[in-house]
């Protein structure tokens, strides 16, 4: 089986490893880490996320998730009133009462996360102690954990990182001689199933996914665990797994046909699976992905794109758009640049003339650079999108790139569509 054309994946002499990084520390425009609950509560179907926060926190989550008033999602907010903030009420007594009422109403909950917010962080409410106390009260039926989703401590996608880090101590110990593959970072169930079928065909594994669909079947971890990062923002989780003996497999992230192949190839090499076998198993999936991308190349090729920092997937996406669709990144901003975890991506991203890599944000200065560059499309947060559109710039909401399934061969066309759609819309408006 011939399969789709295969790009050479490896260190590129024209990669961005040696490109200077513009580091900025100023005002930033991002969502807080509470937003991660939107995809986490869909993934872990026996978990519940109880935000200890204000009405603003509740409104944010309700709006971002699009939850109807009659729906029963797996998250909610224990709303802190003025008397709580003023220290006129015993927050722990009230929290115990709210949790007791919640668990009696929802017997399906097996793991309860107490999620810190800006208000709970400001008044120094010790949710770790609360989780420990409530875990004792409701054991063994319910496990109670805590993590911070506060905008003071986290930014957007870091909410998943802090959540998974809190779960790592709960993972069972794997036997020292047991070898397994652990895929870390939330992917849509359909993507997870696709990846599992490929790994099974390659006889790589056993394969576990973290977070799991059920918190009653947490994946084991130990010295024989090899880790593939599916999301680039699970940095603290990876550090915690390393302390448990796990070893990371260096790889690009599975965005686009090239990235997905390189990601799978890295795991296959760790299991001594021949390259030809990987190409054979992935041939049809690569053909589908390549055909899907071809439909968007005419729209996207040569277009200049500017990334504001938002989710930490900016560099992998820039690599995908540059190498597989011919777009020209002008500036690629990322909230944090983890050199080790992003090394394979930096090797692959061409250091085009004038390309700026930036870490952190000083939003006023970055806006000035964006206006001066005049890109064809700008990837940014919701808070900047409308003002930029009013200035005549075409924008792509960065948050949609996290909420949409974009990993893997079969989602490569969907990923390209997310960038092509705003450009097509702009073309229709200009007619």
Characterise this structure:
This protein is an alpha/beta fold. It folds into three domains: 21-28 and 293-430, Nitrogenase molybdenum iron protein domain (Rossmann fold); 33-154, Rossmann fold; 180-275, 3-Layer(aba) Sandwich (Rossmann fold). The protein is built from 17 helices and 14 strands. The chain has helices at 37-43, 55-65, 82-85, 91-105, 118-122, 127-138, 158-167, 189-202, 235-243, 256-270, 275-300, 314-325, 343-348, 363-373, 382-390, 400-403, 412-430, and strands at residues 21-25, 47-53, 75-79, 111-116, 143-148, 180-184, 207-210, 225-229, 247-248, 304-307, 328-334, 356-361, 377-380, 395-397. The strands form three sheets. Strands 1-12-11-10-13-14 form a six-stranded parallel β-sheet, sandwiched between helices. The chain has a four-stranded parallel β-sheet with strand order 3-2-4-5, sandwiched between helices. A four-stranded parallel β-sheet has the order 7-6-8-9, sandwiched between helices. Helix 9 (235-243) links the parallel strand 8 (225-229) and strand 9 (247-248). The longest helix is centred in the C-terminal third of the chain and has 26 residues, at 275-300. It is globular.
């Amino acid at each position: 089986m011939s399969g789709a054309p295969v790009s050479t994946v490896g260190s590129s002499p024209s990669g961005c490893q040696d490109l200077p990084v513009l580091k900025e520390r100023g005002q930033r425009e991002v969502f807080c880490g509470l937003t991660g609950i939107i995809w986490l509560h869909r993934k872990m179907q026996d978990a519940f996320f109880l935000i200890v926060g204000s009405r603003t926190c509740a409104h944010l989550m309700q709006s971002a998730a699009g939850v109807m008033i009659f729906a029963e999602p797996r998250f909610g907010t224990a709303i802190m009133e003025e008397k709580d903030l003023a220290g006129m009420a015993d927050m722990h007594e009230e929290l115990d009462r709210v949790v007791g009422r919640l668990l009696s109403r929802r017997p399906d909950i097996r793991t309860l996360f107490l999620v810190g917010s800006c208000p709970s962080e400001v008044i120094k409410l010790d949710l770790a102690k609360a989780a420990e106390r409530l875990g004792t009260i409701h054991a063994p039926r319910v496990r109670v954990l805590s993590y911070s989703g506060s905008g003071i401590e986290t930014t957007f996608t870091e909410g998943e990182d802090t959540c998974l880090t809190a779960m790592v101590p709960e993972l069972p110990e794997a036997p020292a001689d047991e070898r397994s593959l652990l895929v870390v970072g939330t992917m849509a169930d359909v993507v997870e199933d696709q990846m599992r079928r490929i790994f099974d065909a390659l006889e790589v594994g056993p394969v576990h996914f973290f977070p799991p669909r059920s918190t009653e079947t947490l994946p084991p971890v130990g010295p024989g665990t090899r880790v593939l990062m599916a999301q680039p923002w699970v940095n603290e989780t990876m550090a915690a797994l390393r302390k448990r003996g796990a070893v990371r497999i260096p790889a690009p992230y599975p965005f686009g046909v090239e990235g997905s192949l390189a990601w799978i190839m890295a795991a296959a090499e760790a299991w001594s699976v021949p390259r030809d076998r990987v190409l054979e198993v992935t041939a049809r999936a690569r053909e589908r992905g390549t055909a899907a991308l071809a439909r968007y190349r005419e729209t996207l090729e040569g277009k200049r794109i500017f990334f504001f920092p938002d989710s930490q997937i900016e560099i992998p996406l820039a690599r995908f758009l540059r190498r597989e669709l011919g777009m020209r990144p002008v500036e690629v901003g990322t909230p944090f640049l983890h050199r080790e975890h992003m090394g394979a991506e930096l090797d692959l991203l061409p250091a085009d003339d004038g390309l700026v890599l930036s870490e952190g944000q000083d939003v006023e200065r970055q806006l000035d650079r964006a206006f001066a560059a005049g890109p064809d499309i700008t990837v940014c947060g919701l808070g900047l999108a409308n003002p930029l559109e009013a200035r005549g710039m075409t924008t792509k909401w960065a948050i949609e790139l996290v909420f949409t399934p974009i990993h893997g061969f079969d989602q490569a066309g969907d990923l390209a569509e997310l960038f092509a759609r705003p450009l097509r819309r702009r073309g229709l408006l200009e007619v």
